[in-house]
Amino acid sequence: MPPSNSAPIADLDRLAGAVEPGMALALPVDYAGVSMAMTWALLARGAGDLHIVNVPTGGMQGDILIGAGLVRSVETSAMTLGEAGGAPCFNRAVKSGQIKLKDATCPAIHAGLMAAQKGSPFMPMRGLLESDLLKFRDDWKVIENPFADSADPVVLIPAIKPDVAIFHAPMADRFGNVWIGRRRELAAMAYASATTLVTVERVVENNLLADELSAAGTLPALYVSDIAVASNGAWPYGLWGEYPTDTAEIIRYARAARTDEGFAAYLAARAADKAA
Amino acid sequence: MPATPREILIHTIAGLLDGVRHVAVGASSPIPAAGAMLRRALNRRAGLPPTRISILGSREHNFFTNGSAELFDCAGQGRIDAFFLGGGQIDGRGNINLVGAGDYPRSSVRWPGSFGSAYLYYVVPRVILFREEHSPRVFVDKVDFVSAPGVTGDHVYRKGGPYALLTGLGLFSFDKRRPGFTLESVHPGHRLDDIAQATGFAFAHEPAPRTTPPPDGPTLDLLRHQVLDELNETYPAFASAMKADIERDAERHDTGRRQ
Questions:
Q1: A103·B123 Cβ contact <8 A
Q2: Any chain A CB within 8 A of the CB of B214?
Q3: C-alpha pair distances (Å), B82 with each of A127, A129, B200
Q4: What single string gives the DSSP state of each residue in chain B?
Q5: pLDDT in tens, B130-170
Q6: B122: nearest CA in chain A?
Q7: What is the ipTM of this complex?
Q8: What is the domain count for chain B?
């Protein structure tokens, strides 16, 4: 779907329809605004063979997509359910070899997205040298700093260009602009990705770019491909400035997903909620 | 009423942060956060320059406005003096493993992942390794996967690295020339032998290492009131558990006195 300057408000299924099998998805860290509403829509859509890029770490959303068998590979700095412990489906998939891993470190993912944002082929970054992370990443290269007088190896991170970025935010306006506040990684994801799908709590009538205060925290419609309203759309994750994380529910998921049967039962219960 | 083991850890962390201008604390790290808050309160009390604290994932204790990349940008410029890292495995050369045990990539036990360690360990001057569990499965001879190395070759850009290792049993410093850890002190109620048995790598130590000093009365008072109240904003469950610990100890203490 091409970016539009006046994105009409869609439903979740239309958003999920933009995700084709084999695509690379950029998904945000737990506290930045996870569109859990899109998780259920993606399950219904069923597009598989996905590559997930966690920006820069992942949790329940990626774990569910992995558990549902829709994921081929994951690039991440960590996968965790926070207080609820490890990500059970991810851990099982690692052990069985079901998913290909690209273990990263947070600033390397930010560097890759920033390269894409600038239209540059790569970004150099410090750190990483003599680690096993670097050893297992044949897509990361080490060069000598061409500006240094003496030996100074530096790691190059290639641009990360996801097909689709998906996140949840408090509000959009009727013109397709999205309020992201100070969660600038959401903008970084959108800049780097070909398509950006956003769910929001609500749509406001006024133009977010008309007021300098709201404009500073706004991702312009230029980078937003499609928007759907999903009330409580980050649940059970929280949304900054809106509602807290439902930790009890994440713990419930963590327990259920310890087995394939429990995971299937959890998904069935969520599907029943949705139908109700 | 004496300090609890957790209060001794918090006080020790505050000591390790002496002179720090800006300390960052990762998400779900209540003890390091409490140590940083105690440092800030001690500086305030002594009229010393303020200590800034950034707690990731907190709204109250976080002044970043440029998303989750800002912490790393800030650290890369030398604007963060101290940070905490843990590890599923830590070895005697200061290598840390946050990825998993066994052969990579199909680890037999998988941990969340390296987070920012493979960058912050290189650029933050005082990295405090903190792991409460002190056992041979954590403190191994050699980690199965190096998320971030304790030391690197001379040509590697390295402004930072391991500064100390704090566990539930003792406090170690790190000597990057050797490289290796030195046991600085043993926490009250534990012995050098216990630590040697629970550690899978060799470390240097005095024949009779000193006991980790507990906080003095006024410091303990600061910790139990001001710091615990501040901590309650970000880690309510942990703060109330600590309060319960202190009250239980006080009751035991009172009962002991009456008998």
A1: no
A2: no
A3: 16, 21, 27
A4: -PPPHHHHHHHHHHHHTTT-SEEEE-TT-HHHHHHHHHHHHHHHHHTPPPPEEEETT-STT----SGGGHHHHHHHTT---EEEE--SEEETT--EE-SEESSSSS-SEE-S--TTHHHHHHH-SEEEEEES--STTTEESS-SS-SB-S---TTS--S--EEEEEESSEEEEEETTTTEEEEEEE-TT--HHHHHHH-SS--EEEEEEEEPPPPPHHHHHHIIIIIHHHHHHH-HHHHHHHHHHHHHHHHHHHHHHH-
A5: 999 999 999 999 999 999 999 999 999 999 999 999 999 99
A6: A127
A7: 0.94
A8: 1
CA–CA separation, B174 vs B150, rounded Å?
9
Q: Is B217 on the interface with A (CB under 8 A)?
A: no
User: Which pLDDT tens digit goes with each residue over A151-209?
Assistant: 999 999 999 999 999 999 999 999 999 999 999 999 999 999 999 999 999 999 999 99
Q: Is pLDDT at B257 greater than 70 in this prediction? A: no
Q: Which CATH superfamily is domain A9-121+159-275 in?
A: Glutaconate Coenzyme A-transferase (3.40.1080.10)
CATH code at position B107: 3.40.1080.10
Residue range of the domain that includes B225: 5-258
What is the average pLDDT across A212-234? 97
The verdict on A102 touching B (C-beta cutoff 8 Å) is no
Taking one residue from A and the other from B, the number of pairs with CB-CB distance under 8 angstroms is: 145
Residue spans per domain, chain A: 9-121+159-275
